[in-house]
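Transcription antitermination protein NusB structure dump, as promised
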Amino acid sequence: MTRREAREQAFVLIFEKSFNQGDSLQEIIEKAAEGRDVEVDPFAFSLASGWMSHADEIDRQIEAHSTRWKMNRISRVALSILRLSIFEVLFNEEIPDRVSINEAVELAKKFGSEDDSSFVNGVMGAVVRTKAAEPQK
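structure tokens r here:
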């Protein structure tokens, strides 16, 4: 499985989690395996579980950078893509920020509405600019 395919799989897991908030990631994976014969890629699992470990911080980033949009107004598709991509940008140093942004925009084009790709691109650009402006830890 390519990294792009694994990102898509991670997006689907995060998207499914938005409908099954009470389920653990493992329960969502088990349901996917049972219902759709899905075998989760290790990279996809690391992205989805990484997001879950930092969900509150990532959602604060989305709220801070999605100007004029409240979290409950953002589509679940765009929100899931942002959660995945912001995790990559903030917590996965082996992936260049521009790659994470490009992959996020491609996911939005594939799964989102007409406006999702530009919205995702704008939020991700703001997150990356804020990250670059912060002193390195």
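The mean pLDDT is 90.
lmk if u need the other ones
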